[in-house]
Prior knowledge:
Blueprint: E1 4-5, H1 23-33, E2 37-48, E3 54-59, H2 67-76, E4 85-87, E5 90-92, E6 94-108, E7 111-122, H3 142-146, E8 151-159, E9 165-175, E10 177-178, H4 181-199, E11 215-223, E12 244-246, E13 276-278
Antiparallel strand pairs: 1-10, 2-3, 2-6, 2-12, 4-5, 6-7, 8-9, 8-11, 11-13
Amino acid sequence: MHFKRLSYVLSGLMLCGVAVSSPAVAASAREVAKQAEASMVVVGTLTVAPNGSVSSYQLDNAEELPAAVSNLLQQAIPSWQFDPMARDGKPVSVKSRMSLRVVLHPLGDKRYRLYLAGAYFSADNKPLKSDAPRRTQPRYPKQAIRARVSGTVYLALKVDAQGHVIDAMAEQVNLRIAGDDHEMERYRRLLADSALEAARGWVFDPQGFDGAGDHYVMTPVSYVLNVSPGAGAHAMPGSPGHWDVYVPGPRYAVPWFDAGAMVAGSGDALPDGGVYLFNASSPHLRSKLSGS
């Protein structure tokens, strides 16, 4: 296949390519590869004061984070302002789990921009548990395996009060290879179709929901080849301190997602392997994530 492979070197972001047979396709793959970025998911806990300011925070696996990421978060998080939370009509302090997407984007000439691209906040941040016997794991498409294609599909799901998935959509698909536009679209659709086929048959435990009516859920589904301990750039996405290098796919609006449910954050900030509920009762960040 006419792909360029993406790898990450901690001393600097570098794109390394395999040989391609067609100069026209090679040029197109190089153009796509220029869109590549590196990112990591950082999780932790913060406490929102009654006035909406951040009174304290703690990062999970803080010792695994690069110094530049730690410095960025030390500058950004204390400056955040949330909508004050109330209980029985009185402002209260709220402890929330948080998940953040930190992006390292190349600007050219060996310069990079480090910024916060997404966040997810939840008063409990407990991954939603599905009915295990009725949750089919997506199959890795054989065509993608043969072509050594890996990536992550960010699924948006609408779930009814009984826990059945009644609508599903791939909000975004990021690929860890670079090919021409036609190839990239083909493999994004291949991974998305695989994830959607499995997700449409999932059944969730209704006890994991608050209240009646429809609920909005997001989950990242990763397709990763050759995952092993110490695999470096090929480690499972979301590993503490690990940079994941990929070409971001287009992000699509989910028409049936309730706007009020999305105040909690963005889907690409979710740790891999979890299923997360979006609802309006989660802390709502009213200020910018960072100086981006």
